Amino acid sequence: MTDDESDSESMMDRHTTGEDRVRMVARQLSEPQTANWIASEAGWSHEPTKRVLARLVDDGILHRDESGAHTTYYPDYRQQAMQEAMRLRDSGHTVEELTDRLAEMKAQIRDWEDTFGVESPNQLRGTLADETLDGEAEDQRREIAREWEHLQRRIEIVGFAIREWDFLAPTTDPAEASS
C-alpha cells in the first residue's frame, strides 16, 4: 500500500462513520450480498452493520432475501435504474450523444455474438468447456461475458433515459429558480 492509499483510507475513516460506509456500500450493490460481505467492504463490524441494513430494509432502500443458505441484501434495482437515468439526463450529454452510445454498445454485443458464435453471456461461458482454449483465452471469455452483462444493463438504462428524455427533464431550470 502506498502512502497516498493509506492517507486516503485514513481520511475516509476520519470523515465517514461506519454507518455512512455501510450505506454507501449497500447503495452501490449490483448483486445480492451478505451482511458479512457488506461489513467487510465498509470496514465495520458485523452486528452494527446488520442494524443499519435492517433500517435500510425498513426504509425501503434495500430488500432482504432469506430464501437461500444466507440472508442477502440488495437494492431496489428499479430505483437505481431511475436514478441512473436521471443522472444521464442531467449529465450535460445530448439525447443524440446517448443515442450514439447506445448504438456503440449494441454494436459491441453484435461483434461478440459474431466473433464467438453465441447469443448470450452464458453461452459464451459455456464455450470454456472447449479443451483447446488456453488459460488466457478462458480468462478473456470470462471478462467479455461480465462486460456483456454490464452492457446489457446499461443498454436498458440508456434506452429508458432516451425514451423518457422529456419526462426526466429537471422540473425547473437552475437559472429560472434563481430569478
Automatic annotation (TrEMBL):
Biased composition (Basic and acidic residues): 11-21
Bias-annotated ranges (Acidic residues): 1-10
Presence of the UniProt keyword DNA-binding in the record: no
Positions of the UniProt region annotated as Disordered: 1-21
SUPFAM superfamilies referenced in this protein's UniProt entry, alphabetically: Winged helix' DNA-binding domain
UniProtKB keywords: Coiled coil
Coiled-coil spans in chain: 88-115
Protein name per UniProt: Uncharacterized protein
Provenance organism: Haloarcula onubensis
